[in-house]
Amino acid sequence: MKQSLHADVAGLNGSRIDVRRQWAEVEHFRLKENWMNLGKTDVQTIREVISPLITNDTDEVDARQLDYDLVNVELALGYPQYNAQRSRKAVMRKAELLVEKKANIPMVKEKLPLLRRVINPDFWKHAGLADLERVRLELRSIMKFAKREHREYRFINILDQVTKVGEPIDAPLPQVSYQQRVIDYLKQHSDHEVFRKIRHLEPLSEADITSLERILWYELGTKEEYERCVAEKQRICGDRVAAFIRSQVGVDREVALRRYAQFLNDHAMSEAQQELLESIITYISENGDITAQTLMSVPPFNDTGRLLSVFGDDLANLTDYINELHRVIS
Fold first, then answer.
1. Pairwise CA distance, residues 320 & 133, whole Å
2. Cβ atoms of residues 201 and 325 within 8 Å
3. What distance in Å separates the CA atoms of residue 194 and residue 192, rounded to the nearest whole number?
4. CA distance linking residue 174 with residue 162, whole number of Å
5. If both were cysteines, with which of 95, 146, 184, 213 could 118 make a disulfide (CB 3.0 to 4.6 Å apart)?
6. How far apart, in whole angstroms, are the C-alpha atoms of residue 196 and residue 244?
7. How distant is the alpha carbon of residue 252 from its chain centre?
8. Spatial separation of the C-alpha atoms in residues 181 and 174, rounded to whole Å
9. Which residues form the EcoEI R protein C-terminal domain (predicted)?
10. What span, in angstroms and rounded, lies between the C-alpha atoms of 174 and 98?
């Protein structure tokens, strides 16, 4: 999916007005390396900025809308804070329409078994990335049939009662969650020096930590809101604000791999070591921190036999590396 989305972004027409308006984001995601380790702010940018541009870039509007909806569902698999319920229901509605109204079309008839699975709510409870990709790829070609033949309109004439000219309406303003305030702030201040340090695994000073506490506990909300957010998301960072920010912005994967290479004694990593190390880097990006104790208690890292077989004599180097990643934000 990442490769497909990257290809779509790379193919966006730079002369389009809507693309030019979002050029900074488009240019960022045209670089393949920026898809390697997506942070939560990246995911939101893809969802809110990039996906609509891709959806409007072709005549296959119906197929692209399916892409957009299923991208949302797939993102929600890795980032549960993103609610994909609306997209999921949209796909189910289209599948239901095809089964009930368009089953006589040969192309649709061929896909009926899969369509019936998609309509079943139990499918969505257990669907993984491979299942969703199969749905996306197999159903794209028949989305053009997922349209109602006509729409019936009913008009009701309701007279509004004017109470008093200029009288204000007492309506509550929509509330923005603390988590959303944090995400919005990080998007608007992505070049903040402390955030850059966190992404690049550079040690933070006491002044840096104090700056983060001021932002999270005073500017964006209260410490109580921060603590509720941490508890609701079951984050391991606690009051360690740098770890919380790292769980939002992630880490630079290339920097993290180079940092580990410094712990090796002039020999290269094996393919198995790099694969497991990248899983550790992903865990850090999503959870903000890791310790040797965490490593031994969280799947798939809690398989001590596997760690020993993969790292062997380098296991001590891995432990030192993990301690270093913990230290730079402590």
1. 39
2. yes
3. 6
4. 25
5. 95
6. 14
7. 16
8. 13
9. 177-328
10. 36
Tell me which residue has tokens 């941490």.
Answer: 230
DSSP conformation letters of 53-89: HHHTSSS-HHHHHHHHHHHHHHHHHH-TTS--HHHHH
230-286: pLDDT as tens digits = 888 777 777 889 999 998 888 888 888 888 888 876 677 888 888 888 888 888 888
Asked if residues 183 and 44 have their Cβ atoms less than 8 Å apart, the reply is yes
Cα–chain center distance at 170: 36
Tokens of 323: 């301690």
Show Cβ contacts of residue 225 under 8 Å, excluding neighbours closer than 6 positions.
Answer: 178
Instruction: Label each residue of 247-265 as H, E or C.
Output: HHHCCCHHHHHHHHHCCCC
In terms of average pLDDT, the best of 12-16, 222-226, 252-256 is: 222-226
Amino acid at 40: K
Helix axis angle, 241-249 relative to 223-232, nearest 10°? 60
Please report, for residues 46, 72, 76, 121, 137, the alpha-carbon distance to residue 85 in angstroms, rounded to integers and kept in the order given: 17, 9, 9, 11, 20
Q: Going by C-beta distance under 8 Å and a sequence separation of 6 or more, which residues neighbour residue 93?
A: none
247 touches 237 (CB < 8 A): yes
pTM of the model: 0.51
Q: For the chain, what percent of residues have pLDDT higher than 90?
A: 14
pLDDT for residue 95? 92
Mean pLDDT of the chain: 81
